[in-house]
Structures are given as C-alpha cells and as structure tokens.
Amino acid sequence: MRDFKVNELIDSNERTWKRELINNTFSEEDVGKIFRIPLARASHDDFFVWWLTWVFDQFTPCHYYLFCCAFWAIWGDQNRRIHEKRISTSKEIANFINNYIAELNGFEKRKSVNTTGTRSWSHPPYEFIKINFDGAYDGSQNHSASGIVVRNVEGKVLLSCSEIHQGITSAFAAEAIACWKAV
C-alpha cells in the first residue's frame, strides 16, 4: 500500500471523497471512518494547516504541547472579546496557560481556598439530592479513577461507586470521565 496525502483522496472539482480509490486502498473499518469526515463545500487555501505542520516539525513534543495550549487560550480570549465583550490582559492569558498546563500534567497540587479549617459537606436544598464526584489521574500509568457519592438532604448516602479507567492521557480527561459517569 502506498502512502497518500489527504488531498489525493478528494475529488477537488466535486468536493467529494474518491470512493473507489479509498475502497480499494483502505480496510473496511478505515473506509467507514474516512467517509464520516465531512468535506468543505468550497475549495480553500491550506496554508494555515501547512504552517502548523512546519511549526510542529520545529518543536519538541513538550514545546508543541505548550504551543497548542497557548494557541487555544488566545483563540478562546478572542471569542470572549467578540461574544462577551470581555478583555483579558496578556498576563492573565499567560497565567491561564501556565495554570492549565500545570493542572493537566499534575505538577501542582490543588490549593485549598478555605484557610479557616477543614471544609465539611453541605446539605442540598429540600427535595434535592447532591452528587459529588472526582477524578484522579496517574500519568505514569495512563490510568485514572473516578468516584461518585449521591446523598439526600439528610446526608444519607443513596449511591456510591468508584471505577478505574485505562488508557487515559490527561488529568483533564480523568475529570471529564468522572463528570460523565456522575451524570
């Protein structure tokens, strides 16, 4: 099997996949995945994609991880400026990037905001239940664990569970899985 560039698999005039070529080149499973990828209706310049490819070729994985987080933070800031009319300083954006990367890599322990002592569980309002969940991440093993506790207004445990997850690649994913399991 020869290597193809993506643009060789697209009929540029019709803006459709070259079905026969793809069917004869890839496994049935891969063919299904390829055909599920939507194509742009109008032709466009690929400069940005090629520029990103060049950037990644210049960096180490650690550097392009930082680059992607920075790019994402700046993009998000731009959206907040447009849609929420909220402007962040460059220092705030830099702090967000540093804190986000530290959280994802587990370099920094969470700091308690309660300085007066241990914070205790608080009851939900009447006729409600409260769902507490948390995720833990082990980057050296790519494992995570999620824990869930559901209580009523008296604090009685209605349900509790925990689960180990394999192949998890970030602290963010571990927390997202815990949230997903809770709902």
TrEMBL record:
Domain of life where this protein originates? Eukaryota
The question of whether Transmembrane helix is a record keyword is answered with yes
Tell me where the transmembrane regions lie. Answer: 48-75
Entry keyword Transferase: no
- The residue ranges of the RNase H type-1 domain are 132-182
Query: A GO molecular-function term, please?
Result: RNA-DNA hybrid ribonuclease activity
Q: Which UniProt keywords apply?
A: Membrane, Transmembrane, Transmembrane helix
Pfam families given in the database record: RVT_3
How is this protein named in the record? RNase H type-1 domain-containing protein
